[in-house]
Specification:
By secondary structure, the chain is an alpha/beta fold. The chain contains eleven helices and 16 strands. It has two domains: 178 residues, Alpha-Beta Complex (DHBP synthase); 89 residues, Threonylcarbamoyl-AMP synthase, C-terminal domain (Rossmann fold, 3-Layer(aba) Sandwich), CATH 3.40.50.11030. The structure holds threonylcarbamoyladenylate and magnesium ion.
């Protein structure tokens, strides 16, 4: 565990950041917290360094990586054709958990998986922002999990998945939202959400003042390459409990671990993993991925999870639950 370094998420020690930046500049990989989940990053302008990210995670080569920036100069360096109206919006929403697909420039084919576009975001977290500034490079970073596993919310989960395959892990405590950024593709008349995330569809509609469609809901909407892979899933079987009655029945039969709200858990006589109150979907989001890892470590062979209201961050919660249960219902 000697690749783990503690760092204050609010005011990161400059010396630690300098050391991490040196790792980035020599082509290494650094895992760090963001406001969404932990990422594992490398110099986005160095194809060989980015190749290392794919190796470390066991990630499919055709799945492009989000590039993290700390200022708009970097945005202009790696993208082209950005409309002034869109730039003004990005100046309002960034830093924040919104990734946007733009036409690429001056950036290699490894992080972008050979596409003509690049996904960019400016994270709202001091550690990556300071790391990008100290290295002077945009940083390509997918979530810091083993490919297919739930994204990490804690540095210890990064270590469980990637161990010493990553050169340095900056432990800044838990990531804030617990689900990844929202990935959007702006089009002439509409904004397509390729992956629902921490930035809500309602907020996007208000800020962009355009129609918002969620990919997969209409046949023409493009799909993000990453969304076709098995994702976010525990290794144990996880089923979606459609009704409270079915959840109670399944848990009473035994050997099933309930994952869900405190409200539903209080109606069961069996063990459960409480995600939080139904009234606070942010709390549910923060505890969701860690609960999948807890299920895997538990004595239970099957988990049953309840569904949540698809408003705000609830859209991302249900998207991840559907992927994790892959159609298995009670
Ligand atoms: O919150 C997050 O977004 C985290 C933190 C570390 O920033 N990162 C993250 O990255 O979740 P990753 O690689 O696990 O997910 C990126 C998603 C994938 O579904 C990928 O296919 C999609 O973004 N993506 C990346 N570049 C794209 C592009 N040019 N066109 C379409 N989709 C793209
Ligand atoms: Mg990921």
């Amino acid at each position: 565990m000697n690749n783990i370094r503690k760092v204050d998420p609010i005011s990161p020690d400059p010396e630690t950041i300098r050391e991490a930046a040196a790792v980035i500049l020599r082509g290494g990989t650094v895992a760090f917290p963001t406001e969404t989940v932990y990422g594992v990053g490398a110099n986005a302008l160095d194809d060989e360094a980015c190749r290392q990210i794919f190796r470390v995670k066991g990630r499919q080569q055709d799945n492009p990586i989000i590039v993290h920036i700390s200022d708009f100069e970097q945005l202009d360096y790696i993208t082209q054709g950005l409309k002034e109206s869109l730039r003004l919006i990005l100046e309002r929403v960034w830093p924040g958990p919104l990734s946007i697909i733009l036409d690429r420039k001056n950036i290699g084919i490894v992080p972008t998986a050979g596409l003509k576009t690049v996904a960019v975001r400016m994270p709202a977290h001091k550690v990556p922002l300071e790391l990008i500034r100290a290295s002077g490079k945009p940083i390509a970073a997918p979530s810091a999990n083993k490919s297919g596993s739930p994204s990490p919310v804690y540095a210890s989960e990064v270590y469980d998945d990637l161990n010493s395959r990553v050169d340095m892990i900056l432990d800044g405590g838990p990531a804030y939202f617990g689900v990844e950024s929202t990935v959007i593709m702006p089009r002439e008349e509409e904004i397509v959400i390729l992956r629902p995330g921490a930035f809500s569809a309602e907020e996007i509609r208000d800020i962009f003042k355009m129609k918002v469609v969620v990919s997969g809901e209409s046949s023409q909407a493009p799909i993000s390459p990453g969304m076709k892979y098995r994702h976010y899933a525990p290794e144990k079987e996880l089923k979606l409990g459609r009704t409270e009655e079915k959840i109670i029945e399944a848990c009473e039969k035994g050997n099933v671990l309930f994952i869900g709200s405190s409200e539903t858990a209080s109606k069961l006589n069996t063990e459960s993993i409480v995600l939080g109150s139904k009234r606070d979907l942010y709390e549910i989001a923060r505890n969701l991925f860690p609960s999948f890892r807890k299920l895997d470590k538990s004595k239970y062979s099957v988990g049953v999870i309840e569904s949540f209201e698809e408003r705000g961050i609830g859209l991302a919660i249900m998207n991840r639950i559907r992927k994790a249960t892959s159609g298995k219902e009670l």
